[in-house]
Structures are given as structure tokens and as C-alpha cells.
Amino acid sequence: MEVLIVILGLLFGSFLNVCIARLPRHESIARPRSRCPRCGAAIAAWDNIPVLSYLLLRGRCRACRKPISWRYPAVEIILPLLWLLCWAWFGLTIHGIGMAVLCFLLLGLAVMDAETMRLPDAFTLPGIVLGIVYSGAICGKWARCAALSLGWAASFAGLILAIAGIYWLLRRRSGMGLGDAKLMAMIAAWLGPSQGVLVLFLGVVAAAIYGLALSVSRRKMEGSVALPFGAFLCVAGIYTLFVGQRIIYWYLGFFH
Ligand SMILES: [Zn+2]
């Protein structure tokens, strides 16, 4: 079983790399064939084997010898690891398969936001729909649970837009965008309100620590650096989907 999960993870990780490279630029993920982004040479099938080709080519394009981004093998290694964790944590259940899909979406969105500051609709909008379907599927009363999931998605999108609006009024600068609202709606559709709040909290704290560390290391405060806030939400989402329930029980324990 583990071997099958790793092979599937490598293949989907490779597909995720294609999505990451093309979706933020509104290019088709179906065609053309993969090309070297530097010299445009088509990549042969035998040079497109996940992780292995990167190692055999020693991280360089066969045609132009320019370096290939380490992001490619990194995504191809991280996705199978996350899928193994899903399997170990939740088993081969609707819960486990659902969380594996959510890991795929969140890992892709994290890298896209970090690289391009974009969170493509091609991931967030189907992600919201899948989250509603998933919430209905794992619950006995599917219609009621799916409707609740939709409601939480809308509420969290509204919350992000409200925070963004207040921030704009105070600072005349946009800190979060529509993409962050759709991302948060997706996370709430999958994980529900309590884990949604936890993701938002952890994402804000992580982004604040990162921003602070960045401003200290750069010393001079010439204008502020735009942070890929969505990437922090995605990482917080992946963390929360594994351990969020435990953190919430631990926290609620203080009130008993
Ligand atoms: Zn090349």
C-alpha cells in the first residue's frame, strides 16, 4: 500500500508542478508538452520522471544546461510524504482521501502564492465545491452538512473581506485580496468553523513572525514588502488538518 501511495504521490506531484508553472499565467495545463522555461526545448518523457530525472540530470536542462528550479523535486517529494501521513493518520477512508485531495490543493496554492503572489481560481473555486461535497459525504445528513459547509465558506470569505476592508481604511493599502478570501472559503468548506478559525489564527501569527524577521534582517524600512499571506494560510491549513482537532480539544480543556 505504501509503495502505491508513493508512486501515485510522485505522479500527482509531477502534475502539480505543471499546474504551479502554468495556472498563475493562465496557460493550459493540457498542452503543449512540458518545455524548459529557459531555452524552450521540449522535455522528453525519459527526462520527465519525477525526482529521478532531476537527480540524473543533476538539476540541469539537457539542452541548455541551465539549472532547473529545486521546486520541482521538492513538490514531487513533499506530496507523497503528505499522502503517506494522510494514510497513516486517517486510513483508506473518505476522511483520508478527502484530506489527501486537500493537501494537493493547499500545497499547490502555497507554492503558487509564494512564487507569483497569485491564488488561481482554477484551484480555489473547484476546491470550495469539493470541500462542500466532501463535508456532505462524511456526514450522515448529507444535504444539511453540505449546506452548512457552504454557509461556513461564505462566512469566512466575508470575514476576510471585512478584515481587508478595515485594513484598507486604516492603512490605505491592501494587505489581503480576493484570492485570500476564496482560499479561506475553501479551507472553511473542508475543515469547518473551529479549524477554520485555527488556520486563520496560525496563518496570521506565522505571517507576522516572518514579516517581523524580514524587517529586522533588512534593517532599513523602505516601504513594506508584500507577504504571500495565502501561502501562510495554506501551510497553516496543512498543519491544522492533521493536528487541528487535538489542538482544539486541548484548548477547550481549559474551560472544563
Ligand atoms: Zn533548457
Please name the defining characteristics of this protein:
mainly alpha; 256 residues; binds zinc ion
Short description:
The protein folds into two domains: about 1-85, no CATH class; about 95-255, no CATH class. Helices cover about 70% and strands about 0% of the residues. About 35% of the residues are buried.
- State the secondary-structure class: mainly alpha
Please tally the helical runs, counting DSSP H or I stretches of 4 or more residues: 8
Global Rg: 20 Å
Instruction: Name the beta content range.
Output: under 5%
Strand count, sense and barrel status of the largest sheet are: none
User: Helix and strand succession?
Assistant: HHHHHHHH
Question: Please, could you describe this protein's structure?
Answer:
The protein has 256 residues and is mainly alpha-helical. The chain has two domains: 1-87, no CATH class; 93-256, no CATH class. It is 71% helix and 0% strand. The protein contains eight helices and no strands. The chain has helices at 2-22, 52-56, 71-90, 94-116, 121-137, 142-171, 178-218, 229-252. The longest helix has 41 residues, at 178-218. Bound molecules: zinc ion (ZN). Zinc ion (ZN) binds at residues 36, 38-39, 41, 61, 63-64, 66.
Blueprint of the fold:
Layout (H helix, E strand, L loop, with lengths): L1 H21 L29 H5 L14 H20 L3 H23 L4 H17 L4 H30 L6 H41 L10 H24 L4
The protein binds zinc ion.
